[in-house]
């Protein structure tokens, strides 16, 4: 079974019930099939995935997901998608030094 990294994942069952999985939790096979964002999974070694600043690290993330990361980092959440990604990428670069 897969494990969730440093986040929470909401998975909606066919009956409309929403199940929330938290960081470090094992994900059952039925839920794994419904999770479309591969970035939520922890590496196979069981350690939570590190937040990376590789090119495209924020590709495919919704504005709400980007704003959630910005909020965690206590950064401004205004602007369009490009501004949000730029702010996160800049913060990543500053914190890697």
Q: What is the approximate shape?
A: elongated
Radius of gyration: 15 Å
Number of helices: 3
Mean pLDDT: 79
The strand line-up of the biggest sheet is: 1-4
Strand content: 5-15%
Amino-to-carboxy terminus distance: 35 Å
Helix amount, in percent? 25-40%
Question: Overview of this structure, please?
Answer:
This protein is α+β, with helices and mostly antiparallel strands and 97 residues long. It folds into two domains: 1-49, no CATH class; 51-97. It is 31% helix and 12% strand. The chain is built from three helices and four strands, in the order ββββααα. It has helices at residues 29-32, 63-72, 81-96, and strands at 2-3, 9-12, 18-21, 26-27. Strands 1-4 form a two-stranded antiparallel sheet. β2 and β3 form a beta hairpin. α2 (63-72) runs parallel beside α3 (81-96). The longest helix is centred in the C-terminal third of the chain and has 16 residues, at 81-96. Residues 46-53 have low confidence and may be disordered.
Detail the topology: elements first, then pairings:
Elements: E1 2-3, E2 9-12, E3 18-21, E4 26-27, H1 29-32, H2 63-72, H3 81-96
Antiparallel strand pairs: 1-4, 2-3
Helix pairs in contact: 2-3
